[in-house]
Design a protein that fits this description.
Blueprint: E1 6-12, E2 15-19, E3 28-32, E4 37-45, E5 48-53, E6 65-72, E7 74-77, E8 85-86, E9 113-117, E10 124-125, E11 130-135, E12 141-145, E13 152-157, E14 161-163, E15 168-172, E16 175-178, E17 181-184, E18 200-201, H1 206-211, E19 214-215, H2 230-240, E20 245-251, H3 255-267, E21 281-286, H4 292-311, E22 316-321, H5 323-337, H6 350-359
Parallel strand pairs: 8-21, 20-21, 20-22
Antiparallel strand pairs: 1-2, 1-6, 2-5, 3-4, 3-6, 4-5, 7-17, 9-11, 9-14, 10-13, 11-12, 13-15, 15-16, 18-19
Length: 360
């Protein structure tokens, strides 16, 4: 890492102090060590930054190089998400252990996607309009949208052929639009307005639909002690609810439970298409043996993916199992940073963090 602008001063588990980083800001990404471990800036004091690393820090030593990337943790949103299994940072893990090695980053999946334009040169488009479509499987049409911060005339549009995720498919108002787009996971994607909660989500579980109905667009919690069946209930909702897309976030769950979810979804037949139900599911598997702060990020990653499909006009259900382990990750992080604990050792900011997630 010859272009590094800083060096490691102290290592405490996943918490790393870095000196002499240039122009680094809160929540900026930083690459640490010769393996370029990925972390987020959680504290800045003078020229010293505290970085919470999302990967295993074994072997990281004082004096190792560090480099600020000057952008926040972002998810690459585009074709290829459906049917995939990802870690908490939205890196594919279906070909493990390739993508589980420390420092490995993913720029794309290498596949070509057939793009068909729905607009012409000279058309004026605004954020959220459809630029074109990608046939992603036999039963799903992926809509390529104008990014949220882009508006203007279509200066150029790609011809009908196959493209990589990083390829430019349009130029709108002087700005290039790629087939896939990056979006910061901790920033909610914009929406014009919130719709009224008038339609029910049919969960497929009669006791819920009768006694505890859930509206589309709302949030529901499944409280209960360990071993009382929360995970089983959430898995049943994922299998049988009438949503278009399921985003299942395994936040700190046991590996065997995530394996069971993946196996069940691949064997179940989708009544809409007659194909495996897993083809319209995005599985984010950040199991209990993975880095603890990637667990904290996985909740935001799952919500960002769900908002992306929501913008296409699809009904999307986010299942986070479980938010209690998300809170435990926040407790572990706050204890390392010296934040004053509240009840049961959780950080005082836990309530506001949960409220912000529910309001997303």
């Amino acid at each position: 890492m010859s272009d590094a602008s800083g060096h490691v001063r102290r290592v405490s588990g996943s918490l790393v102090e870095v000196d002499a980083l240039d122009n680094v800001g809160m929540l900026d990404l930083v690459e640490v060590g010769h393996l370029r471990l990925l972390g987020e800036v959680v504290s800045v004091r003078d020229t010293r930054a505290t970085v919470e690393v999302h990967e295993y820090t074994g072997g990281l030593a004082v004096g190792a190089p560090a480099r600020g990337l000057h952008h926040p943790l972002s998810a690459r949103l585009g074709p290829g998400l459906l049917g995939g299994v990802f870690d908490g940072l939205l890196r594919p893990i279906s070909n493990a252990p390739t993508f589980l090695r420390p420092g490995v980053t993913i720029s794309g999946d290498g596949r070509d996607w057939p793009f068909r334009a729905k607009v012409a040169v000279g058309d004026r488009v605004t954020s959220g309009e459809v630029l074109g479509t990608v046939e992603e499987g036999p039963a799903f049409e992926h809509r390529v949208l104008v990014p949220p911060d882009v508006t203007g005339p279509v200066d150029w549009i790609a011809s009908e052929k196959s493209y990589h995720l990083e390829d430019r498919i349009a130029t709108v108002g002087g700005r290039d639009v790629e087939l896939a787009q990056l979006w910061p996971v901790r920033r909610a994607r914009p929406a014009r307005r919130r719709l009224e909660l008038t339609r029910p989500l049919v969960t497929g579980q009669r006791v819920l639909d009768l006694l505890y109905p859930v509206a589309r667009g709302s949030t529901a919690a499944v409280p209960g002690g360990f071993g009382t069946g929360k995970t089983i209930l959430l898995q049943q909702i994922a299998k049988w609810c009438n949503a278009d897309v399921i985003v299942y976030v395994g936040c700190g769950e046991r590996g065997n439970e995530m394996a069971d979810v993946l196996d069940d979804l691949s064997q179940l037949v989708d009544p809409r298409t007659g194909r495996p139900l897993s083809e319209r599911t995005v599985l984010i598997a950040n199991t209990s043996n993975m880095p603890v702060m990637a667990r904290e990020a996985s909740i935001y990653t799952g919500m960002t993916v769900a908002e992306y499909f929501r913008d296409m006009g699809l009904d999307t259900v986010v299942i986070a199992d479980s938010t209690s382990r998300w809170a435990e990750a926040m407790r572990e992080f706050s204890s390392r940073t010296g934040e004053l604990p509240a009840e049961e050792g959780y950080p005082a900011s836990l309530a506001s963090a949960l409220a912000a997630f529910r309001a997303a």
